[in-house]
Write a structure and sequence with these properties.
Largest sheet: none
Number of strands: 0
Helix content: 40-55%
Strand content: under 5%
Structural class: mainly alpha
Radius of gyration: 20 Å
Order of helices and strands: HH
């Protein structure tokens, strides 16, 4: 496995590729279910006053 030096990573953060043809997952049933489960779990958690 080739080693990558940290200095090389810091110099080039990489190029961002934007593709407008990627479909949205906003209505994907799996994603919608996971979001609902996460909202339910977060509603059950009570934060201390100093974290609000």
């Amino acid at each position: 496995m080739p080693a990558v030096k940290n200095a090389d990573r810091e110099k080039s953060p990489g190029k961002v590729i934007v593709d407008n043809t990627i479909k949205s997952h906003a209505n994907d049933p799996f994603v919608v279910k996971k979001v609902e489960d996460a909202k339910e779990a977060l509603s059950k958690i009570k934060l201390p006053d100093y974290l609000k």
